[in-house]
Every structure is written in structure tokens, then in C-alpha cells.
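Suppose a colleague, Dr. K., hands you the sequence of a protein chain of 243 amino acids and asks what its three-dimensional shape might be. Before reaching for any lab equipment, you can write down a predicted structure in C-alpha cell form. Begin with the sequence itself:
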Amino acid sequence: MYQQEMARTGKALFFIRGTYIYTIIAISTLIAYVTRDIGPFAIMHADFAWFWVSLAVASAGAIIRVFTSGWAALGTSGRAKVAAEASELNTSGPYSLVRNPLYVGRILNFTGLAMLSGSWIFGALVFLIAILVYERISVYEEEYLKGKFGETHSEWAKDVPALLPRLTGWTKPKYPFWWKRMIWREQNKLFLLATGVFLTCFARSGFDMVVLSGPWVQAYAALICVRFALGGLKMIGFFKELS
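The predicted structure, expressed as C-alpha cells, is then:
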């Protein structure tokens, strides 16, 4: 009964999972604007260390997603779907260490973005909520996978943890790394990571327009151009076969 309730809740959370990152970036930006602090400490060097750790955590999550999406089979681990689906069961590469590597990536990415606010309370809160949310989503997806793949799924799940990766047991990816498909699936998440860094830093300055002349702002502007270019390629069907 408890498992069924987890799956039911997970299905509802699965449907809106794409909106979480926008909420986290918005709240992080607001906190940075109100506090104007780069970190939760009284010592400047410690606050700067907090910033780089935050960026590292968020980037680690993005990197996990990049490699998972690049090695995943077609018809699996999809973007923006309203229900679970899988043409085959991913068990190699990142999936040989943890059953839900994309969700591990999201938990780290969301936590790092929250930490960029400079608040350890918000960072800890997002980390705990993300675990609760993706635990339920993973239960929902696994109920679907059990029904479709049966014993094959049971044998794989018996040795591979759901969200806490094991340190041994790596299996060579079944498929080569598909850069085009990785870009199709993860380019928006990478852009949002850069956006989170930009907005929290800009908010911390009080949205002072003077800072918009810096080279890091020019780099972000260039990234926006790349993002629009990729959007144009999507519109003409360049990524169509890689959903």
C-alpha cells in the first residue's frame, strides 16, 4: 500500500519535474538580492570557498547528466515526457552504478544552485526536498519498468542501488557516446546552470547595470546566442531523431 502511494505521488511529481529548476533559480536569486552575501560565513575567504563548492556541486550534477544522456539508449531517459517510457532497460555505463543517474545529477545540480544563493539553510532544504521528490518519482518509474521488463529488471535492481551510487561494478556502456543527442537533451540544463550563476551574482550586486560591462557578462551573452542557435537547429529538425 505504501509503495503504491509512493508511485501515485511520484507520477504527479514526474509530470511537473521540469519546473523545479526554475523555482530554485528564482528563490536563489531573491535570497542573493536580499542578503547580498556570497556565503553563510563571516570570513570572506570562507564565503568564496562556499561559492566554488556550490558551483562544483551544481556542475557535478550537470556532468553526471551529460554522460548519462550521451550513453543512454534511444527511447529511454527522455526529456519532458508526461509519463514513463522505455524501449529497453538501461543497465550499462552510469546505470551500472546507480539505477537513476539522471536523478542523482538533478539532486546535485539543484542543491548546488540553491547553495549559490549564499544560504546553507536553503541549500540543505533543497537537498532534502530533492531526495524526497526523486525518491517518489523513481518508485513510480520503477513500477513501470518492473511491469515491462520483469525478471531482467529485478536482477539488475537487486545489485544496483536506486539513488546512492555504488563505487564498484562499472560496466562499459552498451552504446557509443552520442554528442548530438547529449546536446539535444542537456543543452537547456547547462544553460540554466550558467543562468543561475549569472543571476545570483547580478542580484548580489543589487542588479547594478555597471557590472554588465564585465567580461563574464559578455561570456554569458555569447552563451545566450549559442542557446538561440541550438533552438533554431531544433526548429528545423536537426535533433528530431534523438528524442
